[in-house]
User: Which sequence fits this backbone?
């Protein structure tokens, strides 16, 4: 299979947390993280939603209060991202082509300042796109559970199949890490 050619290590996140809301951002700030790059679909809102929920808006305010800059990096199309950020001051990039670094590089270049790699944290719900992209870019990565898997598109469903194979690889090659991260809960 194609994924066999890709090194398992490239798919191991630095952290696995159930949801974006539950991430310990204060700790991340203490550790020197300043820029949050986050996926949109199934990380911040489900495919059925179009605009930020009150919960997300409050979280963004809180994060900016802490001193984070937030940038959205999505593989989805422009209209979807524009609708989401319409009434908020956050930058968002569509067609990021994760796990390629095209969108990532653009987002970094256009951030409010130049962030060193160790100040960047990348958050997303997909191993094959978000975590692989973060690891390729050598930035800190956090995997979250998809908010609502039922409404995912066919290519995302395909990625989930690859992801399960990768999770099994991680389990067999890096069992200690797998247990530390609690990845068993991901299956
Ligand atoms: Mg996603």
Assistant:
């Amino acid at each position: 299979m194609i994924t066999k050619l890709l090194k398992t290590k490239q798919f191991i996140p630095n952290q696995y947390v159930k949801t974006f809301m539950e991430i310990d951002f204060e700790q991340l700030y203490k550790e020197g993280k300043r820029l949050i790059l986050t996926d949109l679909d199934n990380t911040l809102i489900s495919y059925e939603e179009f605009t930020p929920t009150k919960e997300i808006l409050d979280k963004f305010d809180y994060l900016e209060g802490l001193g984070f800059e937030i940038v959205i990096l999505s593989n989805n199309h422009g209209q979807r991202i524009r609708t989401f950020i319409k009434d908020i001051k956050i930058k968002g990039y569509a067609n990021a082509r994760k796990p390629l670094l095209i969108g990532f590089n653009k987002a970094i270049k256009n951030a409010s300042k130049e962030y060193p790699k160790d100040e960047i944290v990348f958050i997303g719900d997909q191993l094959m796109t978000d975590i692989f992209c973060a690891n390729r870019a050598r930035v800190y990565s956090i995997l979250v559970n998809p908010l609502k898997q039922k409404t995912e598109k066919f290519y995302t469903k395909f990625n989930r199949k690859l992801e399960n194979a990768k999770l099994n690889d991680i389990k067999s090659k890096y069992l200690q890490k797998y247990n530390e991260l609690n990845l068993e809960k991901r299956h």
